[in-house]
Amino acid sequence: MNRNNLLAKSFISFLTIALLILVSSCKTPESKTIETEGILIVANKSDNTVNFIHRGNGDILATVETGLEPHEVEVSPDGKYAVVTNYGNREFPGNTLTVINISEARPDKTIDLGEHTRPHGMVFIDNDYKMLVTTEGSNHILLVDIEHGDILKAIPTEQEISHMVAYISKPPRAFVPSIRTGNLTVIDMETGEIITHAYSGQGAEGVATTPDEKEVWVTNRGDNTITVFDTQTLEIIETLPCGDFPIRAKFSPDGSYFLVSNARSGDIKVFHAEEKTLAANISLKIELSDDPEGRYFAAEFQGSSIPIGLVVPDNKNAYIANTNADVVTVIDLEDFEIIGHFKTGKQPDGIAFSPLIPEIKPEE
Question: Is the whole model's pTM more than 0.85, yes or no?
């Protein structure tokens, strides 16, 4: 082989290697890997059901019937049970919880809350299936034993539209925002007494505590702000601007990010939790459903997919329920990009994660 042919072949080999390196380094959203462990459990308000959705491929593995208009879903720490608040509709207030056996994808029991109507926010407080539940109809927070179906405590919040709830264990305190008054009600769960009503902002709704339990963050949908409180002193640490109508909030498990769904502006704001600065704004430009009947906020928030429920199972991905588009959006938390959409039932709202995958064939 002469010298010119050798040089030509070497040059072609160099170009081939360079091209392969370039292609491998240019990741597109479509090429990223979606985590496959576990399932998403999504409450469909208009269908009175929850979907069990495979986290890896978006297949609906099962659909379980609930009570009237399920709004929120929470999963027990061991992944055994999913609990759904049956809120009811405008004419018929609900007063039940549907408890679902996740491994078998079937209802385990229905818990009747009696006079405590319009159950909504929930949080598990221990590994023995005890959870807190807000009831807007009676303006209470309930301590419920999910395994035995008993109400152990019923504590008045003294505030109207006590919507969501967060909890810390040391000392045991519940944090309940009021959409009507804008206050954050702080309750001593040992004594059942109200410690204070701390003003957060107009339309206080979404709430989450940092994994280290040092701070509680509240979204104020009327002011389009986030208020950060010290969980011990209950003093305001900072107030941050947010998107339009911030409605739900979650921390990443490592506490590095705080995610907020903004229903009117149709986006997700991601904050650096420690620095309390904006890390990313992710616009959810999704094709909307052509069936607007009976959807919350559809008339007021025209053009928005109306992101509401969100869950952050790990530090890699977040999942957002879009109630005006009937899909769950998958977000990559490394590059803050949308990497997929999963179909749901009508008007998805509450969403949770379980590491268990029932051995069920996907629905046709």
Answer: yes
